[in-house]
Amino acid sequence: MEVKAKKCKGQNKAFGFEGCGKLSKYRKYGLCPSCLSKWFNTTDIGREYLNSLTIKVAKPRIEFEKFNKEEKERKGLPSLITNTRNAVHNYVKARDGKDNCISCNTPYKPNFQAGHYFKAELYSSLKFNFDNIHSQCFYCNNKLEGNLNAYAINLPKKIGQDKFDELVKLSVLDKHQKFKWDREVLNNIRKIAIKKLKELKNEL
């Protein structure tokens, strides 16, 4: 059905606004496109309504952009965690050099690993804590699941009782919080590990 042309004159929200009076098939609130634009820009109610439309249109886009950003960060987090882990473990191995195994005191071998006292998979917030990771033989770390009884005896001797006590406190806090890594913290830890490794190499 053909739209009937009518005179441009403000109606509904634009009631009282004088249009151009010309016949127009395309009207909004009784106004032709040109007068509608004028109403939007010259009246308080028009500007308010235009602003509400802008917000309404922009909101889905903003929400989509936020979701898209969060999704990219979520997908990129595992890779960043791996890179941070590699940097931290490389530093720990260099820091401990050819030290004996932290648990069983076995003399150094090239296959020594970076072993955690508080397990990385159980204590997320201590996963990259330098005091919690030390050079450990393959047998203690893998076959004896860390050989923790011996580790607990030798760790305070190495890092000092105060640092060991602080580590224990952090482990208790870890169990009472829902911990999640974020990109900024991971990047900072990775940079610190890389810097410490570089400083060690420069000292040699």
Residues in helices, as a percent range: 55-70%
Broad structural category? mainly alpha
- The gyration radius over C-alpha positions equals 33 Å
End-to-end separation in angstroms reads: 88 Å
The side-by-side strand order for the widest beta sheet comes to 1-2
DSSP strand count: 4
Largest sheet: 2 strands, antiparallel
Number of spatially distinct domains: 2
Shape: rod-shaped
The fraction of residues assigned to DSSP E strands is 5-15%
Unreliable parts: none
Number of helical segments? Answer: 6
Explain this structure to me?
The protein is mainly alpha-helical and 204 residues long. It has 6 helices and 4 strands, in the order ββααββαααα. It has 2 domains: 6-42, no CATH class; 75-203, no CATH class. The chain has helices at residues 33-42, 44-96, 138-143, 148-159, 161-174, 183-203, and strands at residues 6-7, 23-24, 113-116, 133-136. The strands form 2 sheets. It has a two-stranded antiparallel sheet. Strands 3-4 form a two-stranded antiparallel ribbon. The mean pLDDT is 89.
Topology of this structure?
Layout: E1 6-7, E2 23-24, H1 33-42, H2 44-96, E3 113-116, E4 133-136, H3 138-143, H4 148-159, H5 161-174, H6 183-203
Antiparallel strand pairs: 1-2, 3-4
Helix pairs in contact: 1-2, 2-6, 4-5
Brief descriptors of the model:
6 helices, two-stranded antiparallel ribbon, mainly alpha, 57% helix, single chain, 204 residues, 2 domains
Task: Summarize the model shown.
The strands form 2 sheets. The chain has a two-stranded antiparallel sheet with strand order 1-2. A two-stranded antiparallel ribbon has the order 3-4.
